[in-house]
Amino acid sequence: MKYLTWEIKAPERPGTQNAEKETASVTAYLLDWSVEERKKVRPAVVVCPGGGYRFVSPREGEPVAMQYLSMGYHVFVLRYSVAPARFPTALWQLALLMSQIREHSEEWAVDPEKIVVSGFSAGGHLACSLGVFWNREFVYGPLGCDAKAIRPDGMILCYPVITSGPYCHASSFEKLLGDEAGDEEKRSLVSLENQVGPHTPRTFLWHTAPDNTVPVENSLFLAQALSKHKVGLELHIYPSGGHGLSLATEDTSAGEERRIDPRCQSWIELAGEWLEDL
Predict the structure, then answer these.
(1) 154 neighbors 204 (Cβ within 8 angstroms)
(2) Tens digit of pLDDT per residue, the chain (278 long)?
């Protein structure tokens, strides 16, 4: 396996004061790096950890990457910009990463038509944002990219932040929008159930019913919108477990028993089965 790391600099929004906050970092985990094996082209998963657009959780980064690697996927973990960076900075960073993966697909032995985004909580909002906005000029235009270069081929969304209306995770939208958090037009734009269409890629979605941080309605609203537009969907609602479980194992619990749930541990295996149909 080969490890690569680099930084992604998104276009600066007007009035940005902390330019260092506009830079993301990427860790790539590439399988089959020997000269003899590199001819095997593999799908890839881009992981966007959560953190409420306030920080980027390490529990939802490398441990998740190791699981996807064990399934035979190349993995790219994006540590995107958070507050005080504002929308759409992190979205631009994710879009640029998608474009870079396709640009280097031959070198990295990546199948350019099988690149999936996998996001957790606010990282799920980021991943889903790319899924609904990839064909919008405000995303690909400032990057100088073709829209198809940044389109994800699927989404794996784990207890995602979706809606900015009732049942929203208010803090995520306050961090994402900053002083525009009270702007109803902006809030509607980033309430992603409003943006789903036939262009949205097929989706694997899971949540826990007792989640009292990001209510399960976030996933239900998104599932309803995907179904309305006949977008392929696999949805799992677990009857136990809270928020921020990651793999729901002891290894990703950070010593907190509430983050361990044996039933929820099945999501990664189910996602692996879903990925086989790419």
Answers:
(1) yes
(2) 899 999 999 888 766 555 546 899 999 999 986 656 556 899 999 999 999 999 999 999 999 999 999 999 999 999 999 999 999 999 999 999 999 999 999 999 999 999 999 999 999 999 999 999 999 999 999 999 999 999 999 999 999 999 999 999 999 999 999 999 999 999 999 999 999 999 999 999 999 999 999 999 999 999 999 999 999 999 999 999 999 999 999 999 999 999 999 999 999 999 999 999 99
Distance from C-alpha of 165 to C-alpha of 81, rounded to nearest angstrom: 24
Q: Secondary structure of the chain in the HEC alphabet?
A: CEEEEEEEECCCCCCCCCHHHHEEEEEEEECCCCCCCCCCCEEEEEEECCCCCCCCCHHHCHHHHHHHHHCCCEEEEEECCCCCCCCCHHHHHHHHHHHHHHHCHHHHCEEEEEEEEEEECHHHHHHHHHHHHCCCHHHHCCCCCCHHHHCCCEEEEECCCCCCCCCCCHHHHHHHHHHHCCCHHHHHHCCHHHCCCCCCCCEEEEEECCCCCCCCHHHHHHHHHHHHCCCCEEEEEECCCCCCCCCCCHHHCCCCHHHCCCCHHHHHHHHHHHHCCC
**Cα gap 227→244, rounded to integer Å:** 26
At 190, list the tokens.
Answer: 């980033």
Q: Cβ distance 244 to 50 under 8 Å?
A: yes
* Residue whose C-alpha is closest to residue 219's, from 175, 267, 261, 147: 267
Contact call for residues 120 and 81 (beta carbons, < 8 A): no
